[in-house]
Amino acid sequence: MKHFDVAVIGGGILGCFAGRSLLRYDLTAAIFEAREDLCTGVTRANTAAIYAGYDMKPGTLKTRLCVEGSRNFEKLCTELGVRYKRCGSIMVCFGESGAKVLEKKYRRGIENGVEGMKLLSKEEVHALEPAISPDIYMGLYAPYSGTADPWELGLAAAENFLANGGEILKNCPVTAIEKNTDGYRLITPNGEFTARAVINCAGLFADEVREMTNPPQVRIFPEKCDYVVLDTTQSNLVNHVIFFEPEEKEKGLTLVPTVDGNILIGGSTVSASDKAENLTTVEGLEKVITQAKEIFPALSAESIIRSFAAIRPNPWAVIADEKGEFIKDGGSINDFTVLDDGDFISFIGIKTPGLTCAEGLGRLAADKIAAAIGKTAPNADFDPVRPPETRFANISREEQAKLIAADSAWGRMVCHCRHVTEAEVIAAIRAGAVTLDGVKRRTGAGMGRCQGAGCSMKIIQLLSQQLGIPASEIKKDSHGSKMIFKR
Ligand SMILES: Cc1cc2nc3c(=O)[nH]c(=O)nc-3n(C[C@H](O)[C@H](O)[C@H](O)COP(=O)(O)OP(=O)(O)OC[C@H]3O[C@@H](n4cnc5c(N)ncnc54)[C@H](O)[C@@H]3O)c2cc1C
């Protein structure tokens, strides 16, 4: 039976960062991921904004990690070779009651230690965002804010974890855990493993994983949010991450000018009956589009190239009712829920700003677990740096010509919208992509205006050749999403 000092359950962004941080210590660690690829859960579908930290209650773990995380985000992305657009954010409002909320958030930001914030007059907002509605009343600007691709960052952390000696077991759901005197026995369909300690980063399912060895304490109640993505033809419309402050609520709608030049808009909240329910709703999408057009009147709904739903893992404390069933106790928990059971740490329902805080949360869990099992000696060989991927579309003509001369695969264009070459797709497959969306998340192929109409067949062929499996076995993303049904 294979043994690791620490088993990380879940290969989303938190699991990838927890694993990476663990290897700063002289210990062995593995990430167990239920699905065929990493970063396909909550990390795949969210707002992708880096929050400055003025929104949150002073003195909480969430606030501390968010303020630190946003301040250090550029350095983290440079270290991991990941794109980060530190464009700053502006929270805007339409009237006096909204202005009072922005002033309150400004004061809260000062208390939280957020640097460089500024309250903007209507004219100042328009100077920074010329296409914004003339009815905007006021803005709150924060410079340590921006956007990154969540999966790009998570996958980079995972690569760095592997490069430092970590092990990743995909298609390996942990279905049961037994506690014994030396730690834990993890049962999976691929066999049993032992670990001295566990970090539970199972996202939407983290409550269920914790309950494999502990009584229920906090459970996840899902909620759904709808999003739309605009084509890059609209990229000049929005310059900053824009938060729309409706009235007293934390935030209403967010518009994000992504690192790829799209505008991501969301997310209207709709209730969800289960954790896997990720279908968009007409009602949710209409709300997003209507509200977005109120803020940017020139925004064209015809330039929407994609819509998707994200699932928000809301954590609630639970108690047993008279029938012994666990029901919600009090309100939804606002701070990050990190349940510390000594040598078993669980992140339950980490929602916004989990992306901003992923590195901080990973480090927190790794430090606690290393101390709990007495493995605090540093790993002298740990290298935090991961070199950036070469993106054909972003290099000079001379550099492109050199690459093509060395390997003709650089000269064969696969995705014409995003200018992604065969060499990049092959590199992505070698790095672990096994589905069309796995290639998309690693290279951007299929993310352009045609949404894969032009390149999907070529990518299926490359996946088939590289993985040595029939094209009919290649999936778009999750279970049951085969693309080819018969020859
Ligand atoms: C709608 C929405 C918008 C958001 N917007 C932002 C934002 O703009 N900025 C920001 O900072 N944060 C944002 N967040 C928060 C951020 O996206 C999340 O905190 C983060 O992605 C959570 O990552 P995770 O690793 O916990 O979960 P996931 O990405 O869901 O990863 C969990 C993994 O565990 C695996 N797993 C589950 N059960 C098992 C098992 N038994 N065995 C093995 N593996 C298992 C799953 O397959 C999955 O891959 C947003 C969140 C939501 C929901």
Strand order of the largest sheet: 6-7-5-14-15-16-13-17-18
Bound molecules: flavin-adenine dinucleotide
Return Rg in Å: 23 Å
Q: Regions with pLDDT < 50 over 5+ consecutive residues?
A: none
Main beta sheet: strand number and arrangement?
Answer: 9 strands, mixed
**CATH architecture assignment of the largest domain:** 3-Layer(bba) Sandwich
What's the CATH class label of the largest domain? Answer: Alpha Beta
Question: Number of DSSP helices?
Answer: 12
The end-to-end distance, rounded to whole angstroms, is: 42 Å
Structural class: alpha+beta
Mean pLDDT: 95
Report what the structure shows.
With 487 residues, the chain is α+β, with helices and mostly antiparallel strands. It folds into three domains: 169 residues, FAD/NAD(P)-binding domain (3-Layer(bba) Sandwich); 152 residues, D-Amino Acid Oxidase, Chain A, domain 2, CATH 3.30.9.10; 82 residues, BFD-like [2Fe-2S]-binding domain (Arc Repressor Mutant, subunit A), CATH 1.10.10. It contains twelve helices and 22 strands. Strands 6-7-5-14-15-16-13-17-18 form a nine-stranded mixed sheet, with helices on both faces. A hairpin with a 2-residue loop joins strand 11 and strand 12. Helix 1 runs parallel beside helix 5, helix 1 crosses helix 8 and helix 10 packs across helix 11. The site of flavin-adenine dinucleotide has 41 residues, from helix 1 and strand 17.
